């Protein structure tokens, strides 16, 4: 890849997967899979287009739009759209690459992809965001479809933007189909979709806790540190509270919110934060709230990890590379026993190395790490369930969707566990490597489908 421009985020994701496969017995048992990795590392298609739109002053603005259609061996390309000034091909390739294996772990018929634009919704009016969303979909519409590519929301793309884009697609293509997920509940959206990533993250960690404790422990009584304050963080917090945990932190791009009383961050505070996010306001607003300002401290420019005191469970749920190697050491010192990524590639490679080294050395007393491609797969799993409901012209109840989500996360955990035991044997009393299990299980499923369809041989 030396002839290509530097793509640090993608290179990190690729090396993380490749090193896991190389340090397992997978290539010994299936030497042909080395070629599969070489093929799977290159996207099937990358689409780049310009997006021109008119701001409120009547001036024409232009942005870059992207869709990385990475792999369709298991089904239509599936993955979110991100509107954020940091969007570039390296980030979208890393996200799309990870998405292929995450989607495979759900057990549903979905390929992997990712897209978006270097558009910044912050500081824009609702009218400007609507105009941009419509213009973006005009550029993307000819490349997607219910049986081709089914995008969803991601950072900067809420159900509101999905609605505007769906309307633009319907007008452009003259047909109603389940081409986007995360739709409104009364026009094709699935119940539990907004909650799904956060809920699924907690369900996955619940299985980790039960396995590690021989069924004796759960979230009850656990102190949980969470980063981020978007959908994933909010619903992970609410579900963990429902299961008896105390939430001790949330955060945003400006700093960290740390609970100062024994009740922790309550559901009322989570709902207050959700309202702030809808209004595109920062957590600093809480510092001026007479109702809540005495219940937390807000630390400007900080992530929560070194400020949250004693902690049992850690759920990075903001963005990539948000836990460093040094912070990983501090979390272990703080007593953390479980860490699972609600964000994609939330831990740096240094942090993962710290966690995996501790897992091997301390065995049953160690911290246990779960990668995002397994732990946060609940969101795309319910997107897959939304696709199924659209195809059948049906709508399932919240209870039905939640039960299916619980089953998918249970199967995902068991698959990661069994695959790790098969390909990366652990010492007596040592937790199996969930990062190895997730990588190998997801990759093997994609590689086998590609081989059957002649993508490599």
UniProtKB/TrEMBL annotation:
Protein name according to UniProt: Glutamate dehydrogenase
Keyword match NAD: yes
Stated family: Belongs to the Glu/Leu/Phe/Val dehydrogenases family.
GO molecular function, one term: glutamate dehydrogenase (NADP+) activity
Site positions per UniProt: Important for catalysis: 154
SMART domains linked: ELFV_dehydrog
Source organism: Friedmanniomyces endolithicus
GO biological process: glutamate biosynthetic process
Residues the record lists as binding NAD(+): 197, 231
């Amino acid at each position: 890849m030396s002839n290509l421009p530097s793509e640090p985020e993608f290179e990190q994701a690729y090396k993380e997967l490749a090193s896991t496969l190389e340090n397992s017995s997978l290539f010994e048992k299936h030497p042909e899979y080395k070629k599969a990795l070489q093929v799977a590392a290159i996207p099937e298609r990358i689409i780049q287009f310009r997006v021109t739109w008119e701001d409120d002053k009547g001036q024409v603005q232009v942005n870059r739009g992207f869709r990385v259609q990475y792999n369709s061996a298991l089904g239509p390309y599936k993955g979110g759209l991100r509107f954020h000034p940091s969007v570039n091909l390296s980030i979208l390739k890393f996200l799309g690459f990870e998405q292929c294996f995450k989607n495979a772990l759900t057990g549903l018929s979905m390929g992997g992809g990712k897209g978006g634009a270097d558009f910044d919704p912050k500081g824009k009016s609702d009218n400007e965001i609507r105009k941009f969303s419509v213009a973006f979909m005009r550029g993307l519409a000819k490349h997607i479809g219910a049986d081709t590519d089914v995008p969803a929301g991601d950072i900067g793309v809420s159900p509101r933007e999905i609605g505007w884009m769906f309307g633009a697609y319907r007008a452009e293509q003259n047909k109603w189909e389940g081409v986007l997920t995360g739709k409104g509940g009364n026009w094709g959206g699935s119940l539990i979709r907004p909650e799904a990533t956060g809920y699924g993250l907690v369900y996955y960690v619940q299985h980790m806790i039960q396995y590690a404790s021989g069924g004796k422990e759960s979230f009850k009584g656990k102190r949980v540190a969470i980063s981020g304050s978007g959908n994933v963080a909010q619903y992970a917090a609410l579900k963990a509270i429902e299961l008896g945990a105390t939430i001790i932190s949330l955060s945003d791009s400006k700093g960290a919110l740390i609970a100062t009383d024994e009740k922790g961050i309550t559901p009322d505070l989570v709902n207050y934060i959700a309202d702030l996010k809808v209004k595109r306001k920062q957590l600093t607003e809480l510092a001026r709230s007479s109702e809540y300002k005495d219940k937390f401290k807000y630390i400007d420019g900080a992530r929560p990890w070194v400020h949250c005191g004693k902690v049992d469970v850690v759920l990075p749920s903001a963005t990539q590379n948000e836990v460093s190697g040094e912070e990983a050491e501090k979390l272990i010192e703080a007593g953390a026993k479980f860490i699972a990524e609600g964000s994609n590639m939330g831990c740096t490679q240094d942090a993962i190395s710290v966690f995996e080294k501790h897992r091997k050395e301390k065995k049953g007393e160690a911290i246990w790490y779960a990668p995002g491609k397994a732990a946060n797969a609940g969101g795309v799993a319910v997107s897959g369930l939304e696709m199924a409901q659209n195809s059948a012209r049906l709508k399932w109840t919240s209870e039905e969707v939640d039960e299916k989500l619980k089953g998918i996360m249970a199967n995902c955990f068991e698959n990661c566990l069994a695959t790790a035991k098969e390909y990366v044997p652990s010492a007596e009393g040592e937790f199996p490597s969930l990062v190895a299990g997730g990588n190998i299980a997801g990759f093997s499923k994609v590689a086998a489908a590609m081989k059957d369809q002649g993508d490599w041989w």
